[in-house]
Write a structure and sequence with these properties.
It is a single chain. With 211 residues, this protein is α/β, with parallel strands linked by helices. It has one domain (9-210): Rossmann fold (3-Layer(aba) Sandwich), CATH 3.40.50. The chain is 32% helix and 26% strand. The protein has helices at residues 9-19, 28-37, 57-64, 76-88, 125-138, 155-158, 172-179; strands at 48-51, 69-73, 94-97, 110-116, 139-150, 185-195, 200-210. It has a seven-stranded mixed sheet with strand order 3-2-1-4-5-7-6. Helix 5 (125-138) links the parallel strand 4 and strand 5. Helix 1 packs parallel to helix 4. The longest helix is centred in the middle third of the chain and has 14 residues, at 125-138. It is globular, with a radius of gyration of 16 Å. The structure holds S-adenosylmethionine.
């Protein structure tokens, strides 16, 4: 139960997912993008938001690298795990319950936003639109954001064993519509990796933006 509203099957799904602790290591694309764009000397003044932070592994990475971090999620278990992960490592960070499309912060509150494996979970196209609009609103001019989410070719969208967790991946054309016109720079890339002789493909859109 996240305190925002009555618990729904969707909340339970994500509480269950987070009760397994989430990934143990930060996402490699987050690591690459962060090191590429934020020199160590700039990190203490780079306000970061990990939107859909889950159990906080990417927040942990950012805090460890010296960034001030806020994480938001709908899963109370995820938020508690994230607080513990940073707290147990003596790192600072605050974790707040919020729906993706309604972040409780003023305009231009952040210099760097991460949204990792979350956009594809929002069932309504309008929610996906509002999420991207929220990120544009929250970024200061010149700030950067990174979004990683499943494409329709991802195994999670194609394999029956993943049907417990529905994905709503946007098409490439829809991605261009979602991100177009909100940022001064948008790069739309694909991040793909395969397993077991290509039986499974993780096939993600990797969107990096600058406002
Ligand atoms: C696949 S996990 C990814 C977590 C984290 N970003 C990571 O990379 O480890 C997706 C997260 O999105 C959260 N989530 C799902 N729907 C959401 C919504 N409507 N608003 C905010 N968070 C949501 C879930 O609770 C879950 O923690």
């Amino acid at each position: 139960m996240n305190g925002l509203k009555e618990e729904t099957p969707r909340d339970r799904l994500w509480d269950n997912w987070n009760s397994r602790g989430g990934p143990r290591y930060p996402n490699e694309k987050v690591v690459q993008f962060t090191f590429r764009h934020f020199p160590a000397s700039a990190r203490a003044s780079t306000r970061t938001l990990d939107l859909g932070c889950g159990s906080g592994i990417n927040s942990w990475f950012l805090a460890r690298e010296g960034f001030p971090v806020v994480g938001t999620d709908i899963s109370s278990i995820g938020l508690a795990n994230a607080g513990d992960l940073l707290g147990n490592a003596d790192l600072a960070g605050s974790f707040v319950a919020a729906d993706a499309w309604a972040q409780p912060f003023p305009d231009a509150s952040f210099d760097y936003i991460l949204c990792i494996r979350m956009l594809e979970l929002l069932p309504e196209p309008t929610q996906q639109e509002e999420l991207v609009a929220e990120c544009a609103r929250l970024l200061r001019a010149g700030g950067r954001a990174m979004f990683l989410f499943a494409s329709p070719l991802d195994y999670g969208c194609q394999h029956p064993e993943m049907s417990y967790c529905r994905f709503y991946p946007p098409s490439e054309q829809r991605v261009a519509e979602l991100f177009g016109g909100r940022f001064s720079q948008v790069d739309i890339d694909i991040y793909q990796t395969t397993y077991e002789n290509r039986k499974f493909a993780e096939h993600n859109f990797l969107i990096t933006t600058q406002k």
